[in-house]
Amino acid sequence: MPFSTRFGDHFYAREDGRAETAHVFIGQNRLVERWGDGADVTIAELGFGTGLNFLETWRQWQRHRLPGARLDFVSFEALPMTADAITTAIGRWPDLEPLCARLIDRWPELSVMPASWMLDHQTRLTVVVGDALDGVTRWAGPADAWYLDGFAPAKNPDMWSEPLMQAVFDRTQPGGTFATYTAAGWVRRNLQSAGFDVEKLPGFGGKREMMRGRRPD
Ligand SMILES: C[S@@+](CC[C@H](N)C(=O)[O-])C[C@H]1O[C@@H](n2cnc3c(N)ncnc32)[C@H](O)[C@@H]1O
Questions:
Q1: Is 90 exceeded by the pLDDT of residue 181?
Q2: What residues flank ligand 1, with Cβ below 6 Å?
Q3: Contact at 8 Å (CB) between 73 and 124?
Q4: Which residue, by CA, sits nearest to atom 6 of ligand 1?
Q5: How far is the CA of 82 from the centre of ligand 1 (A)?
Q6: Nearest CA-CA partner of 198 in 190, 207, 188
Q7: Which domains does the chain possess?
Q8: Chain-wide mean pLDDT for the chain?
């Protein structure tokens, strides 16, 4: 179970990280339904971590995408994990291992910043290394959906700050969405004052509440 000593937090839900990805990030952004219209889609993420969110998204995208549609997945990460650490973490989900192996083949190229790879003919991954506020501010966007996945707000406030939430909003398509596992009050206020319509929902696993939101049209 990957744990960050620097931030004092786990990388994903202890119960089942992959189920959290599916329920919170893919589910609350309603991605499977949205992929059904065949449009190209850009998903942006704060915190690549072990790549679990990306790999599970890629797996589901391969099952549900329509021919010709393209997924651009852009993730902002300050401290990329080693290929070995990623492989060990993802080893818990054997059906993700083939996709993980394809990611890991390219991972050493990450010293070239930002790294961008076509992982299959319909899927491009970009990992932007550095502080998220800096990376998102330089990124043109826009995203159709955001995964807000920093460590817990109390332990990692920079990943949920007012300027970062504003930069996220400014790089969201009208009608675009975000999802996150947290419902911390000050994070909700930052997202609302940035311009998102925010909804609280029952949380995943042991968490009481989570949030999703939408940029008004
Ligand atoms: C909860 S983990 C992300 C889990 C990940 N999405 C996954 O699927 O494994 C949070 C990530 O945010 C990164 N991080 C923390 N502070 C950051 C910052 N200011 N800018 C960019 N990345 C940051 C950490 O290095 C860590 O990988």
A1: yes
A2: 11-12, 47-53, 76-79, 131-132, 149-151, 156, 158-159
A3: yes
A4: 48
A5: 14
A6: 188
A7: 8-214 (3.40.50.150)
A8: 94
Instruction: Note the residue count of the chain.
Output: 217
DSSP E strand stretches across 58-142 = 71-77, 115-120, 123-129
Per the CB < 8 A criterion, the answer to whether 127 and 50 are in contact is: no
Ligand 1 centroid from CA 59, angstroms: 21
Q: Are strands 123-129 and 115-120 parallel, antiparallel or unpaired?
A: antiparallel
CB neighbour list of residue 36: distance below 8 Å, 6 or more residues apart: 64, 66
Ligand 1 atom closest to 89 (CA): 9
Question: In Å, what is the CA distance from 134 to each residue of 95, 131, 202?
Answer: 35, 5, 32
Tell how far the Cα of 37 is from the centroid of ligand 1, in angstroms: 31
CA distance 26 to 197: 18
The encoded tokens of residue 75 equal 């993730």
Tokens (6 digits) for 203? 């949380």
Say if residues 60 and 157 touch (Cβ distance below 8 Å): no
Token pair in block for residue 152? 């817990």
Confidence (pTM): 0.96
pLDDT tens for each residue of 26-50: 999 999 999 999 999 999 999 999 9
CA 46 to ligand 1 centroid distance, Å: 6
Q: What does the pLDDT read at residue 114?
A: 67
Instruction: State pLDDT tens for residues 92-114.
Output: 999 999 999 999 998 977 876 66
Residues 133-163: tens digit of each pLDDT: 999 999 999 999 999 999 999 999 999 999 9
